[in-house]
Amino acid sequence: MEGRIFDAQVVLSPKNSPRGKLMTQYVCVRVTRMDDVDIALFERDWINTLYYFILNSDEQIYLRYGGRDARSGETYLDLNSIELALEKGLDLHRKYQQGELPKTERPKPRFPREIPPLVERTFAKNQCVECHLIGDFDLVDREQKGTLDKVKQLYRWPDIRALGIELDVPKGLLVKEVKDAAQTAGMKAGDVIAKVNGTSVWTYGDLQYFYDKVPRDATQVKITVDRAGQAVDLPIALRERWWLTDLRFRQLSVDPRSEFESRPLTSAERQKYDLRANGFSAEVARIGGFAQMLKVHELKIGDIVFAVDGVEQDDIANTPELYIKLRKTAGDTVTLDIIRDGKRMKMPVVTQRMYFRK
Amino acid sequence: MSLGFVLPLIADDDTVEWLSNYKDAIQEAKRTHKPIFLEYRCEA
Fold first, then answer.
1. At A254, is the pLDDT very low, low, confident or very high (cuts 50, 70, 90)?
2. Which of A54, A151, A318, A323 sits a CA distance of 20 to 30 A from A286?
3. Any idea what the Cα angle at residue A288 is, between residues A44 and A72, rounded to 5°?
4. What percent of chain A has pLDDT over 70?
5. A10: chain B residues, CB-CB within 8 Å
6. Average pLDDT of every residue of chain A
7. According to the 3-state scheme, what is the secondary structure of A179-240?
C-alpha cells in the first residue's frame, strides 16, 4: 500500500474498528518535524518517510514498525501486521509494568543539530529536516571528518531476502518462503522469526534493525524461530559480502556513482584474458541511465574492466564498481583498464556525487 | 517539506485522537500509564 495512503488509514482509524480499539489503549502521537528528535534513540533506516515506534513514558522502545527494501518504499507496510504490532506492544507494556521486561540501556542522545552539514543544509536555511537528509548528511559529516567506514555505514540495512527469507508480510514475521542459506540452515515456511543473535524481534522493523547490528565480518547469524511453539535456533551462514545491497534508490551523497554494473569473470575467463586469478576483473553488463547524459564514461556492454587506477584486486570488492564505491570519493575521476575487442585501453570515469533531491 | 499530500489530520469524535508533540505524549503516557504509539512522518 502506498505510504501516504497507509499513513491516512492509520491516522484516521475509527475508534470502533479493531485497529482503533487497539490504538485507543495508547497515547498516539504523530511527529512531522525531525528538528528535535533524538536520532540515536530513534535510529532507523532514514530513507523511510513513514515509521512507527511503540515505547513507554520511560522512553524504552518495545518495538519498531516499518521498513523498506529496494523493491518499494512500502514493502513492509501492512494494516494487518501493524495490528499485530499494536497487540504485541500492549502485551510488552503489561510485562514492563509488572517488572517482567528488563530495562534496556538508552543510547547516548544525539540530535540533528549535531551534524554540521545537515545544519548548513536545513536549519541555516530555515528548511525542513527531512528524514532522508538526516541519514545522508550524517554520512557526509563522517566523510568530511575522515571517519566514514563504507562497509559499515554506507551499506546499512542489509536485505534479509539475501539470506533466502521471504516473509508473509501481513502476518508479521511469519516465513512464507525459504531458499538459499536460510533453507540450508533448516528454516521452513511457517516458522515465525523470534530472535536475531539472541535479541527478541517482533516486527520486520525489529528484524531489520537488529540484523543491521550484525558485524560486517561475521560469518553466520543465529536466527531463532518459533516452530509450533518450540524455539529452534538456526545458525545461518553469511556469504561473502552478505551486507551488499542495492544503493541506487538511496541517492546517497557519499556514494560515488560510476553508472555501470559488471559481472565478475570466471576463472576460465581470467585465464583467457591473462588476468589475475584473485582480481576484481569483470564484464560490463549494464550501463547506467545517466552515463551518457552526465558524460560519466564511454563504456560498452561486454567491455572487460580489470583495474581501477592501476589496482586490480581488493580485500573486499569483487567488481570494479564496488571497488570504486568502497575506495573512492564521490566526484573522483578514475581511470579504468579495460579490454575491448581484444585490445587493452584506458577509460576515464567521472564518478558522480548525487545532489538530486538534496 | 512538500505539501503535496500532508494529512490534514482532521480529527473527529469517531477517529483515534493524536497528539502532535512528543514531549506532551510522554507526559500524557506518564499520567495515564499507557504506552506510546509514535508515528514519524516525513514528506520527502
1. very high
2. A151
3. 35
4. 99
5. 39
6. 96
7. CHHHHHHCCCCCCEEEEECCEECCCHHHHHHHHCCCCCCCCEEEEEEEECCEEEEEEEECCC
Overall average pLDDT of the A116-139 stretch: 94
pLDDT digits (tens, 9 = 90+) for A146-157: 999 999 999 999
Give A267→chain B minimum CA distance, Å.
Answer: 45
The helix/strand count (H/E) of chain A reads as: 9, 14
Beta strands in chain A (DSSP E): 27-31, 50-55, 61-65, 165-167, 175-178, 192-196, 199-200, 220-227, 230-237, 260-264, 282-287, 304-308, 333-340, 343-350
Answer yes or no: are the C-beta atoms of A170 and A200 closer than 8 Å: no
CB atoms within 10 A of CB A17: 15
How many residues appear in chain A? Answer: 358
What residues of chain A, 81 to 100, have a C-beta less than 8 Å from chain B?
86, 89-90, 92-93, 97
A321, A338 in Cβ contact below 8 A? no
Residue A306 has pLDDT above 90, yes or no: yes
What is the C-alpha to C-alpha distance for residues A63 and A70, in angstroms, rounded to an integer? 23
Q: How far apart are CA A228 and CA A203, in angstroms?
A: 19
* Nearest in space to A30 (alpha carbons), one of B31, B14, B16: B16
- The stretch A168-174 carries a mean pLDDT of 98
Contact A12, B15 (CB under 8 A): yes
Phi/psi region, residue A297 (left: phi>0; alpha: psi -120 to 50; beta: rest), is beta
